[in-house]
Amino acid sequence: VQLQAYGGGLVQAGGSLRLSCAASGRIFSSYYMGWFRQAPGKEREFVASIGWSGSRTYYADSVKGRFTISRDNAKNTVYLQMNSLNAEDTAVYFCAADRRAYGAGYNGNGIDYWGKGTLVTVSS
What we know:
mainly beta; 4-stranded antiparallel beta sheet; 11 strands; 0% helix; globular
C-alpha cells in the first residue's frame, strides 16, 4: 500500500484544516486507517483511527471534539478534519494503514504502512 498525505499548511489558532491521505496498491477497505503526529522534540503520538467500514472511530483525548476522521472507500481516501486548531497541534502528521485494529494509546510501532508526513503549523 502506498499512502500519500496532503493538506497541511500554516493556519492561525482557531482555524481549520483538512488533511487527506490517498491510498493505492491493495484493497483499501481491508485496512484500518489512522493519523499520527510528531511535534518537534516529541515522540510520535496517536491522533485518530477509523475502522474498515468507517463505523468505528477512535481519538486521542487531546483532539476529541475538535478533529473528525472519516474515510471514503470508493475513493481510497481517509480524511482528518481539524477544527479549533491551537499551537499544540503543530506537528508533522502521518497517515497509517494496518490490517489490524488500533486505537487511542497505540504508539504506532508495528504499523504496516506509513505515508510521508504533511506539516501542520498553527500560529498563535
